[in-house]
Amino acid sequence: MIGVAVVGYGYWGPNLVRNFWETPGARLVAVCDLRKDRLAAVRSRYPAVHVTGDFDELLSDPRIDAIAIATPAAAHFKLAMKALMAGKHVLVEKPMAASSDEARRMLEEAARRRLVLAVDHTFVHTGAVRKMRDLVQDGLGDVYYYDSVRVNLGLFQRDVNVIWDLAVHDLSIMDYVLPERPVAVSATGMSHIAGEPANIAYLNLFFESKLIAHIHVNWLAPVKVRRTLVGGSSKMILYDDLEPSEKIKVYDRGVTLNGSSQGNGEKVYQMLVGYRTGDMYAPHIDVAEALEIELRQFVECVQRNERPTADGNAGLRVVKILEAASQSLAERGRVVELEHMRRIA
Amino acid sequence: MIGVAVVGYGYWGPNLVRNFWETPGARLVAVCDLRKDRLAAVRSRYPAVHVTGDFDELLSDPRIDAIAIATPAAAHFKLAMKALMAGKHVLVEKPMAASSDEARRMLEEAARRRLVLAVDHTFVHTGAVRKMRDLVQDGLGDVYYYDSVRVNLGLFQRDVNVIWDLAVHDLSIMDYVLPERPVAVSATGMSHIAGEPANIAYLNLFFESKLIAHIHVNWLAPVKVRRTLVGGSSKMILYDDLEPSEKIKVYDRGVTLNGSSQGNGEKVYQMLVGYRTGDMYAPHIDVAEALEIELRQFVECVQRNERPTADGNAGLRVVKILEAASQSLAERGRVVELEHMRRIA
Amino acid sequence: MIGVAVVGYGYWGPNLVRNFWETPGARLVAVCDLRKDRLAAVRSRYPAVHVTGDFDELLSDPRIDAIAIATPAAAHFKLAMKALMAGKHVLVEKPMAASSDEARRMLEEAARRRLVLAVDHTFVHTGAVRKMRDLVQDGLGDVYYYDSVRVNLGLFQRDVNVIWDLAVHDLSIMDYVLPERPVAVSATGMSHIAGEPANIAYLNLFFESKLIAHIHVNWLAPVKVRRTLVGGSSKMILYDDLEPSEKIKVYDRGVTLNGSSQGNGEKVYQMLVGYRTGDMYAPHIDVAEALEIELRQFVECVQRNERPTADGNAGLRVVKILEAASQSLAERGRVVELEHMRRIA
Amino acid sequence: MIGVAVVGYGYWGPNLVRNFWETPGARLVAVCDLRKDRLAAVRSRYPAVHVTGDFDELLSDPRIDAIAIATPAAAHFKLAMKALMAGKHVLVEKPMAASSDEARRMLEEAARRRLVLAVDHTFVHTGAVRKMRDLVQDGLGDVYYYDSVRVNLGLFQRDVNVIWDLAVHDLSIMDYVLPERPVAVSATGMSHIAGEPANIAYLNLFFESKLIAHIHVNWLAPVKVRRTLVGGSSKMILYDDLEPSEKIKVYDRGVTLNGSSQGNGEKVYQMLVGYRTGDMYAPHIDVAEALEIELRQFVECVQRNERPTADGNAGLRVVKILEAASQSLAERGRVVELEHMRRIA
What we know:
The structure is a homotetramer.
Chain A (H helix, E strand, L loop, with lengths): L1 E6 L5 H10 L3 E7 L3 H10 L4 E3 L2 H5 L6 E4 L6 H10 L3 E5 L6 H13 L4 E4 L6 H11 L5 E11 L8 H16 L6 E7 L9 E7 L5 E7 L1 E13 L3 E5 L7 E10 L7 H8 E10 L7 H15 L7 H19 L5 E2 L8
């Protein structure tokens, strides 16, 4: 039985608590939050769980093997480092940290102590994203592009821009799904509310191959959109997370190159590029709750000392892109190189 | 009665011919094409119309007051200049020319000879786009962003990239709808078929104000999308050209700034930024054929020596952006300034 | 403070319990269910609430003023009658009872004892249905038709057919929204699984005016549909409960009769019947949870001895139609008169 | 070469004329209409085609082998009989005639003279409907239900009710797709405009098996819907004719009966009825124009003396149902038996 504590009972924390409560192999020992009313909410719902406003109390509690951190991102580094240094395994909310430097130090600390460091990239545990990864790895052919739109009328964040808030989802999905790592990023965007961070942004991701990726995030859209297109040489995917039952559609469509290139003029061209418009199918998607799967895996990784699907390396890669994109945004889209991405594995 | 000749009876020419045939005040005198089978098609359909393979014949025909040019873009400049020099009014397909230099010379020639030079930016004559312009000018408040997606599994063009083929529509609509001109552009994209022009591209347009615009075009998408979002401080628009009857939706949604900014912390923030989620309405849209309205206006402009909605200036502005965007695309998204855009009016 | 007990902790009971727990003015005293594992679930979630397998215990408990019954419909009558006879106010799940005779006796018992008898027609407390009622009462003109489709791949019920399971929702909404009561009903349908009740059915409802209503319910549909069309002489409504934000759309569309009917032939006809295709709008809908509003109202009705929106009369009217429709279904759609519907008010 | 004349150049006639003009093996000889302006329209568009206001002229013209009748339905019988008696093959618009008696006499006359009598059930020649027939015949399992909705804000017809105008499409599709013929029909509906025929109607079709069919037609709907659901024991189909590219969706969904029926109670039930929710796929649909395929087939049938897909028998079956449904509608949905449907083949 792995003893678990959850830190931060705000927006996401209650989901972690509810799921850890049900996860086989896990025992929810304590919940920590600075706000008394939040602790009261835990107490009335889970009378058997210890509540505290003092994080350090968790560190010295021998019943606690692992700590899940669901505070604002600015606090991730400090809390995670303390937890690791106290010998606790860590599951940390996304984004993993407020900078790639922080993320890297967390990663190194966990490695040094042979502790599990998992990042809560929840989406990579959904049936839809796992299906998408399977399709990209087998069936899509060469991947040409990855295009994602994540917009809605969303709560403004004061401390981070829309990239850190929304694009973090797309980047963590992309990191899991694509066979290649980006080598550079550029971003444009704007803040329309004086004094606030950018509320709309467009990211371009460059790769060594001909693959390109693009992410559009917006807190000021009149409609909610969650749509990703992945184009390949053999097939193409439309992933619409708002579809209740057909989240993934696979299209047997694309361009076919055929014949030789001898001769010239229109005829030859017609010979070379043809269109293929075949069937579409929507595979049945596993609808198990992603967080349930993720926490189950986290507990197993702690038990067997294995690496989770979204480990500290995945978390660091995503933070590196977020950081570089924010830098690019401040310079009207200057391309920022992402160094050593391939080494983070 | 204005005598008209149409040059080029390929993809779009037949629409011009069919509509000029019905336009009050116009008399379709001749159709010119180099391909004999195309001329035969005209002859069987419009026995009364003169057909010819010799463009110069049109120039000396005194029955012809205006020439509509629907050839590939590479030929626009040469044909239009000849027509203008022969004293003919000109309606030219979009894009107006293959370069901004050509477009400018066409513009100057028409001005010098006091001839009408219209560009066939068909979309600006649709009910939906005219409604969108009305809304942007009155009701949207400050315009925050203009975001357009125009993707489908489309015919590859050999001679132009996807920007010249698809984004030209969005740029001509944007030029008509927005109250401001862009000052710079950047574009990223890729060609996935060796030896062919870019088949996917993303354009960013920068303005002096906080307005930003973005256009996504793609010849290799599994689904067809024609969607534009325009966000303003008071209202927001969703324009979906594939909707059969509700092409324009207006949302009473957005951010409200209220109260003073004194103090600090979360409370003040909550005071300052509030959300507004009100009604949506879809105004009734005039469904008259855009080309019919456009040609009717062209004939009236010739008769009264007036400027059409999409004149040579609009054509030039659009070509300047296309040109700069293609240049940027070749340099991985370097920002290219658009000079003197405000003077082209 | 009104003391409340909930009977039946199966599919819907947990929602009643959760909401009563939060309802101002209510105190959740006890939960009753025959299954021990269900009671254990209550105990772990609400340690302060008394749990019991003995319904009669509730009757003699002076802390309990009202009993909410969420058992299978077959048990409603017996439990509700016992509760009423013990002087408890009652909130009963829909359908109110297994027959109109039962429903009538419950109604009479409650009236005799001046107790509140509410039926849990949850939908009539949603923002969408309340808006629809407002529109029907003011703005739609004469109501021409009410057409509803409620289909999906749904759990087969062993004891009731699809009408009692699904159409009960539409009938309770219709009862609330329409200004008129039906005078007769017919229904056709089929059971495709040997030995099981009908899994698909179509209901026609006849009125004294020209209004007609139709309901299509189906447990064997590949897609989920929840759509209601209400046509009026001035406006029309589309209510799509699966739309996340625009559940109600109001269309300014219809037929206009104009001019006099003198003369004959096509010209006169054209004069008489014209089409109107105007704007559509989607009013902002209150998204508060319907059950929360309903329970709050139930508590207020008990406190002030008032009648709830969906009282025993509404429940009886719906059961009468369900009963008559099932009878008609067994006779290949024979029209069954609904007597005295107007008196049940 | 088959010489063809088209009678009636109103709403649909121009489509027949345009397509016959292009159909290999056919020569469009003449067009007949009583209205001079309609004939003038033909003359300017097809100068080589003879135009006339005198139907009898066609009968004696030896160049004419076949006559296509696109007049209002009331005139079909008289014109078709004259044509057949003059030895001409006939293609007649749907509905085939104004009564089943007329249809039967046309059928008999054609049979007696060994002439082709085709009915223009255009939809049965679309790629979507042909695909649906293939699926129903192989893959769907036992067909459980056929449910169709065809509603919009449509032109009121003065002389026929909405069943004859809209349901005729569904009935002709159903006749082609289903493996069984209906044995009885009932219909309810209403006229909301005084003195006009019913503008909304619901049809039930009864079969000897457990198959049931239902058709909803409405001229007064705010939105356009063209949706058909076909449920089978193995698979289910959604046919949405307004979908631009995925008109047919096939769902691997349904109920599975498994295990034996011994024992009783809930457990057994759970054993017996299980749910299957598998993949969905949208097969690629042939997009060739249906009318082109149909006329090509008509010409071939004339040349080879074969029976077309939609022959006089199909036309008669559909008219019999229309007739019985109208009768039922006038009697508040009384079930009207359809006799001898199986013999009409």
